[in-house]
Batch of 2 targets.
Target 1
Amino acid sequence: MFEEMDNLVVINIVEHEIDKNLPMMIPSRQQCLSLMATHQMPVHIRAHSRYVAGIAVGLSKTLNRHGAGLNMELVEAGGLLHDIAKAHCLRTGESHALIGGQMVRRMGYPQVASIVEDHVNIADSDLQSPLTESLLVNYADKRVKHTEVVSLEERFGDLVERYGVTSQRRVRLNQYLSLFARLEEMIFAGLDIQPRDIVVWAKVIAQPADPVFALAGS
């Protein structure tokens, strides 16, 4: 995830707001899965992406019961495709968020591309506005370690261990943890569930009848 750590500050400056004025173009679930195969996403990255999508959709559904008005199809597509360029960029050292966003934008899905572009970083300014589909996918990604739903602290502990090779990177990761903790408070404020409760959702997502999206209600 943070293989492009040196680019994080630069990426944070670039904002990719979802343009509500553009026609909403969202690939279907099956189209997303086909794109994942076409672009040769490794099996373990596909599995991670399916769990991120499931958690993000489950949260969106819960929030929508409280009037959030989130587009669950957009959340689902963003979750599935957020790491579409991950394997390629692990080889090249490029930002998988930016390259993946460019790929998805060229496919004709600008709103989904914005989610892909914004799924690594978070800024204080992101927390001054209502919750968005992009923030939900970003948060879900920080709760899924491989295919295990964990706490933010455990996820960032893993990231520090894997990518915190310098003191500067460790400081930066801890700064991100603080921001994501604030985002978590925003998401769960007023809900009748707690962050720890979604850990059990992984069992629902893994059901054979609908291995990813039992939470979506579709």
Target 2
Amino acid sequence: MAAQISDVSGKSFDYIIIGGGTAGLTVANRLVEDPFKSVLVLEAGEANLDDPKILLGGGFGSIFGDEKYDWAFTTLPQKYANNRRMALPRGKGLGGSSAVNFYVWCKPPAADIDAWEELGNPGWNWEAHQKYALRAEEFSAASEEQLEHYAHMHNAEFRGKNGAIKTTPPGKTLQVSKMLLDTLQKQGVPLLEDPYGGNVTGCWIAASSLDRKNQWNRSYAATAYYIPNKDKPNFTVLTEAFGARVLFDTEKSGDDLVATGVEFVHKGKRYIAHATKEVICSAGALKSPQILELSGIGRRDVLEKIGVPVKVELPGVGENLQDHTMVGISYELDPKVAHETVDLFRNPEQAKEQLRLRDLDQDNAHRIGVSGFSYIPLQISSPNAVQNIIDGVTKHIEEQKKNGKLPPGLAEQYDIQLRMLQDRSLPDIELIAFPAHLTPLTAPEKDKPYLTVLCVIQHPFSRGWVHAKNNDPLDQPDIDGRVFENPYDLEIFLESAKFAKRIAETEPMKSGCIREIDPGASAKTDDELKEYLKNACSTCFHACGSASMLPRDKNGVVDPKLRVYGTKNLRVADLSVAPMEIAAHTQAAAYAIAEQLADILLEKI
């Protein structure tokens, strides 16, 4: 039920979940299936239910920066990216980031998930990940009309049938997506039948978390897991409740702390709720470390700096932060070709017309999704540069190992990354056909259509951190992604951008695009293009690793049961536990992590 403070303050629940986002609501959904288990979810944001800014498709990023929906984090100045501060949008409200993302639904290569198990986490492998991702999903295949426009292929074995998250190819398969995929095939990138079975190397049309049976509205954690359960008497959700810290019993269980509740802030006042079984922190990769630190769990120097007594010294809290780095190469499209892009929403009259068509359940631009994707190894995109990059980054890492500059556990991650880099069956970069102008250095012109080819590095070698800046739970943490700290990330990024520019000279893209907008003529040499990358790049909003599931002596924060080291009953369930970044947009992985933890809590595995 939607709770009042009187329903929560001083009350006891079996489970308290901090964060009513993608993972938090998924775990809660499984727990409340048992009517004898009581669950409290504390969500810092508002409910934001039935909100067209969330539900309607096509508004990609339009609510970023609006603090009703977005935490609106920013990084510290990025030393290796011309000291720029970068925006880090994160969903705030029921559903978390699943309420504000670009609703892309894809899965990683099997090797990426098997790497988690290799790092010391038995049971966290591709077979298990696929099982739990499928549990979350109900896939609807393309319609006959869509198949006439493009040959959407899929393998039913790799798609979920009975999950709560509705997925489907977007209602419009755009000409720009088809154009990019056709061009990539001429450059040696294979067209995949189905990228959802553990092999993503190639190009394909992605599914989106859209509900085709409900006007193509967004399907997300709130519609899937909160609304169907909201009237259950054992399910309590309090919004505008900021998790401040986890409380512990003064008596330990052996050597471990016992979590007894959560202190939270609601409308300016502090309250306490009690937990009799477990506390689960699901506040996301940028907030969960802060909550752990305010609870006395983390690096001693960080805790002493913010004035929090050390309860469990865990140096890995907030460390090992990873994210995809993204940049756009934008093109003005030929108006003689019938391109449809979300640029049209910049025109108020066209935006009004699309809404009218939607209300009539007719074809409209709110059905547009980001659908043209490709995951590419350097051996295909950059055959002349790949060996130099492999040799260079290998030497760089070996020097770091010899000099003792790597923190515990990172050498093992790097060994896996180097192996992946040498494997031509695994992707290093991603190219996306984004149906609009999406580069920050120039403004789009009125009523012109654009294509932005987004270039994304998949397995960055740089590692950042996120830490509480003080002991106020309402303050943003300090975040330093250390983007391009490892110089070979920039070299790989450069190759992705050069490949994107090269394919624009290949048909059918060559005829479909009139001119390159950004970076344009200002970036002819490699050094000039690198400057553009530093000035125009952003994160891809896929942060992970800041509470890594690793052995404790390898800077791990949680064990394979997602239990925080040094505690008996405090868990973390969100992307912060992923020890290495994956070659995928991370929405499906967040659901899968939550589904797997639910089985752990219910002792099904």
